[in-house]
Amino acid sequence: MENSNNELALRYREIEPLTDKLNGPVLVRKNDTNEFFVKKCYPLYLEEHLDALQKIEHRYLPKIQEVVVQDGKLWLYEEFVQGKTLTDVIQSSETIETDQILTITMAVLEALGALHNKGLVHRDVKPGNIMMTSEGTIKLIDFDAVRAVDGEKESDTVQLGTMGFAAPEQFGFAESDERSDLYSLGIVMNICSVKEYPKKQLTQDPMLRGVIRKATKLEPAERYQSALEMHQALRQQRLRQIAAAKRAKSRAATLEKGPIRTYTNTKPNTNKWDTNNYVKQVISIISRWYEVIASFFRKYIPGFRTEVMWKRVIAIVWYVFLIIGTIGNVLEQPTTGLRIQLFVDYLFMFILPIILFTNFLDYQRKLPLFSSCNRVYRYIGYGLIFLFWLVLTKVGLELNSFIYKHFN
């Protein structure tokens, strides 16, 4: 829609530029209502996307007043959001409470859900584009990188996004979609928690760790598939947090209001059996051991380090067959020497590939090929690991055979 300079001048009065950039955002005031807006210049190819954005009204998105094409330039007039960016909050805070991180993330997810429902992807979710108003409201701002999801392209026509927060597919490896925004938001969550990117230091916060790990998977198919799905996962985490807080408060109230007991020097009846207390102690011990074992499996055992149930089922079936097959075949050997030799052979043939190909102890993150966003480089990395396994197995089996022949 074409508008004359005079018409815009009658409607808006420029107050001051908000940055030193040429054609940067300018604070303006609407003459008839005295409302403040931010006037921003956008590329002309975004006109259709910004028109779609203007139709979205959401409490966690700034209000788009109007989209104007003027003198070959595209201008957007949007609500002026007064407050701090999340970047400012992170830098000025030693720590951000988990509850606040959940609140911010769930608000941004609702904003993203509104965009995604209209077929739009933000593509630049980062702390600098998340505003916290003086009233405590969250706003997702800045639509310089917004695009519509096509679903049939091999990559984005225009590759935009902020390094460190943008999903791998935003750099030309595939078309970005809703899951790209969720990847970026997972990075933001980790930055809020430990002020580091997940690949350098993943938060140990049990309320956030699993969600961040899934949201930031390299393969989009392994991430949350929608903002709603990720929102529900966080909502469940928050409900657990609330329930835990209520239990702690209830226990504290019980201790505070409990009757005062007096004790005499009489010897307690050692023959009396407190069944309820005994059961509680047993359950508590089992629960602690379960958490220790579950934590070990999630951290170290391939197949259990993911939240994907089918991977865990396959891992259980594989480990059962491997253990039964190994023990059965080893015990069938007539001598101790043969048993040791066969056991070592099995280590090279079956155990070693599990360690190498399932990223045991997250060793792949330290290798350049696997830390690359280029999928081809990662495939090359797996090829080299396969060759390494073949060579190591060949050498190991021959060495094992040589030792058996010469020392038995």
UniProtKB/TrEMBL annotation:
Gene3D superfamilies attached to this UniProt entry: Transferase(Phosphotransferase) domain 1 (1.10.510.10)
EC primary class: transferase
EC number per UniProt: 2.7.11.1
Transmembrane spans: 313-331, 343-364, 376-397
Record's keyword terms, sorted: ATP-binding, Kinase, Membrane, Nucleotide-binding, Serine/threonine-protein kinase, Transferase, Transmembrane, Transmembrane helix
PROSITE patterns, sorted: PROTEIN_KINASE_DOM, PROTEIN_KINASE_ST
Protein name as catalogued: non-specific serine/threonine protein kinase
Organism this protein belongs to: Enterococcus ureilyticus
